[in-house]
Backbone:
């Protein structure tokens, strides 16, 4: 009966209930859109970070992270082929890619700049697809002295595809070495600071320049990101002499974005919740004011304080459930419409390209939005419900 | 004796003034009584009804209801007493607007956790008693004043209380309807032995009451009790 009375009372003053429901729907839709955008951004950023830069796991020679290398590749991996076979024997592993990083000076004969090079296996690097060519061609598979330059560095060096530059660095034995390289192409990663210093070259070219056969690390790409922890544990158990980092330890920018977005959206969520709380509380309080004599009657008939309180809590719950249902449906429809609207957002800070506005519509987001709507609406009715339950019966019956 | 009131006083504050609504009222109500508390507005009859009905506390004195000193118990602990021993009939009917006639009558039985089958039988019987079986599914706003008061009577009676309190039960009804309501209440009193106490200044109610207690300025007038019937 409590639920029946609560349900019917929600529809007693339809206009007021409609306005309250609209506020809850607005809140739920907001949570779904904010949450969907946030999750899409996190997932997109996570996957792009993994697939284009850091991989799911990076495998190093044991001691790499804790010991200070006196010379380049002191802690490099030497028996790479065997290590690769061992890692790739796991069916969850999609591929491995060997990399070396090196830094030094790049010169065009008139001007020198510092560079930060990533030496890669060109065929593997193409699969990672972490950059976009803006000129020339990609890194050739079998040309050790070919490089591609970040757009900013190319502009600074006045280099264009086909030009020759000189790279100078310290070898693995500590001496200086230099090599002439052909600029095959120019690329952009989207991060300006990176593009201003970045060079990509072939692993074999870098090994010649560094005078070594070692590689710094093996990037391990998995089929599914969710398998990262399990694969890491298996590899650690099976392969001695290595140490690993997973993508989460390497994706500093990703974590900064997560922290920032969680802060922003948490604050917005608080504002939305506060609006819902005040709106529902106001509706229930108005309802109590209008039904004071009715409350007195119920209590005169022997209804307990607790039951009166439950009745108004149930009204808050009913409003919350109705608002949550409408909000989830509305939010899902709107998010779907936005996803099909091909809306482009401007580049975020530090990036040079925009990205499409998309919302991830996962069940967890919809359930969370519904749960928050219901809980908020119910919690909002606690104070009014207690107020109703503590009325003096005589005063309530005499209320006009 | 169903009710014994001893030296009942009730005062409350109205702005800065202390109003003494009742002062030294003594009254006994026997089981099966059909008693009217009469008096002009402000005489204290509704206040006395509220005190007997355990919805207000006296400032002084003692009320013993069916052997229990209800003045010694906080009001919110008397919900079960109100539910099981008392029925209320209000001047403005006070039906729950969102419930049908059936559901309004059913409500006290739900409070008392009466099983569904028995509940249904009792609600139907009482709606039949008050002549509203056909209106069971109608909501209060679809009923006339007389019909609403009949629903209120069925609601007050359905839990089979020892005592029914009626505050000006005919005040909002035309004289024909009021007469029918009084016939019904007298019949229920006679058939079920339920005690009825009215607060009224309607001469028709006073005329039908078996006992009449006149109040004036919060005191029982002397002679205190008139044996009417």
Residues:
């Amino acid at each position: 009966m409590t639920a029946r009375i609560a349900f019917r009372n929600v529809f007693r003053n339809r206009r007021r209930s409609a306005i309250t429901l609209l506020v809850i729907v607005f809140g739920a839709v907001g949570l779904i859109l904010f949450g969907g955008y946030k999750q899409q951004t996190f997932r997109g950023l996570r996957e792009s970070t993994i697939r284009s830069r850091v991989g799911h796991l990076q495998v190093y020679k044991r001691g790499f992270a804790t010991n200070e290398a006196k010379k380049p590749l002191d802690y490099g991996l030497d028996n790479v082929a065997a290590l690769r076979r061992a890692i790739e024997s796991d069916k969850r592993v999609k591929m491995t890619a060997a990399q070396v990083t090196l830094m030094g000076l790049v010169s065009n004969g008139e001007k020198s700049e510092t560079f930060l090079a990533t030496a890669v296996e060109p065929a593997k690097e193409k699969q990672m697809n972490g950059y976009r060519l803006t000129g020339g061609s990609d890194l050739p598979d079998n040309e050790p002295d070919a490089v591609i330059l970040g757009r900013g560095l190319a502009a600074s060096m006045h280099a264009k595809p086909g030009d020759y530059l000189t790279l100078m660095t310290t070898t693995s034995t500590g001496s200086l070495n230099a090599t002439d390289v052909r600029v095959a192409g120019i690329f952009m990663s989207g991060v300006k600071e990176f593009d201003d210093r970045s060079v990509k070259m072939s692993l074999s070219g870098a090994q010649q320049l560094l005078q070594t056969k070692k590689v710094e690390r093996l990037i391990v790409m998995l089929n599914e990101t969710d398998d990262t922890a399990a694969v890491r544990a298996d590899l650690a158990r099976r392969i001695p002499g290595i140490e690993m980092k997973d993508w989460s330890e390497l994706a500093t920018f990703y974590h900064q974005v997560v922290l920032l977005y969680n802060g922003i959206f948490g604050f917005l969520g608080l504002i939305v919740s506060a609006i819902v709380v005040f709106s529902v509380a106001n509706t229930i309080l108005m309802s109590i004011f209008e039904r004071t004599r009715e409350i007195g009657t119920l209590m005169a008939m022997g209804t307990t304080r607790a039951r009166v309180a439950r009745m108004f809590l149930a009204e808050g719950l009913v409003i919350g459930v109705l608002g949550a249902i409408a909000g989830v449906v509305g939010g899902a429809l709107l998010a779907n419409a936005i996803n099909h609207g091909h809306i482009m957002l401007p580049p975020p800070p530090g990036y040079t390209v925009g990205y499409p506005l998309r919302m991830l519509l996962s069940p967890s987001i919809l359930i969370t939005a519904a749960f928050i709507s219901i809980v908020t609406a119910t919690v909002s009715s606690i104070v009014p419900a207690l107020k109703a339950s503590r009325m003096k019966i005589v005063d309530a019956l005499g209320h006009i | 004796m169903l009710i014994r009131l001893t030296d009942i006083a009730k005062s409350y504050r109205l702005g800065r003034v202390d109003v003494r609504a009742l002062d030294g009222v003594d009254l006994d109500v026997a089981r099966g009584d059909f008693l009217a508390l009469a008096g002009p507005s402000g005489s204290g009859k509704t206040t006395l009804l509220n005190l007997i009905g355990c919805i207000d506390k006296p400032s002084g004195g003692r009320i013993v209801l069916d052997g229990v000193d209800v003045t010694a118990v906080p009001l919110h602990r008397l919900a079960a007493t109100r539910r099981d021993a008392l029925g209320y009939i209000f001047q403005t009917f006070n039906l729950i607007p969102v419930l049908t006639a059936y559901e309004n009558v059913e409500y006290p039985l739900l409070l008392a956790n009466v099983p569904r089958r028995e509940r249904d039988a009792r609600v139907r019987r009482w709606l039949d008693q008050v002549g509203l079986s056909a209106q069971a599914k109608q909501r209060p706003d679809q009923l006339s004043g007389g019909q609403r008061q009949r629903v209120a009577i069925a609601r007050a009676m359905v839990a089979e209380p020892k005592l029914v309190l009626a505050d000006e039960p005919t005040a909002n009804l035309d004289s024909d309807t009021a007469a029918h309501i009084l016939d019904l209440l007298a019949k229920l009193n006679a058939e079920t032995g339920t005690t009825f106490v009215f607060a009224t200044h309607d001469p028709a109610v006073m005329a039908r009451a078996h006992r009449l207690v006149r109040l004036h300025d919060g005191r029982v007038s002397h002679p205190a009790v008139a044996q009417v019937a």
Summary: The CA atoms of residues 24 and 276 of chain A lie 6 Å apart. Chain A has a mean pLDDT of 89. Chain A is about 55% helix and 20% strand.
